[in-house]
Specification:
The chain is mainly α. It is 81% helix and 0% strand. The chain contains six helices and no strands. Helix 1 runs antiparallel to helix 2, helix 2 packs across helix 4 and helix 2 packs antiparallel against helix 6. The longest helix is centred in the first third of the chain and has 45 residues.
Length: 141
């Protein structure tokens, strides 16, 4: 093994982390667009079928679906932050690339824990709006 094996390995690891960061960032932004599309769909649905007796159920389903999307996005955010720390340290042994699901599986909560994670996400203001307002208006009129 040559004396340059260490730096070469570090360069390969660094390149892999950079490639993963770019892919995850793109996916992170796609989750943001999907969440926005879901909000717009919910508001358009309200405008189209206001007063329908089943509208409240669809609004709640859209809200919960957005919570799931944002929970997935948060997992990507956690991985992105870990990759950024590894890139900042330039350490070939930390922040190994392509380990998103392996890391998540090690920390995965049980079924109840996952549901609580989704509910916490649903209560975040950036996720919740506009759903409570639309539901309140629907109940009012």
């Amino acid at each position: 093994m040559s004396a340059n094996a260490g730096p070469e390995r570090a360069d390969v690891a660094d390149a892999a982390r950079r490639q993963e960061w770019l892919a995850l960032f793109k996916a992170h932004e796609q989750y943001e667009l999907a969440a926005l599309a879901l909000k717009l769909f919910a508001m358009g649905l309200c405008a189209a079928v206001w007063g329908a007796p089943w509208l409240w159920a669809l609004l709640i389903l859209a809200w919960l679906q957005e919570a799931v999307l944002k929970t997935f996005q948060a997992r990507l955010s956690n991985r992105l932050l870990g990759l950024e720390q590894a890139l900042r340290r330039c350490d070939a042994t930390s922040g190994e690339a392509m380990q998103l699901h392996s890391e998540w599986l090690q920390q995965r909560p049980g079924g109840l824990g996952l549901l609580l994670e989704y509910l916490k996400s649903a209560l975040r203001p950036t996720v919740a709006l506009p759903y409570p307002i639309l539901l309140a208006l629907l109940a009012w009129y």
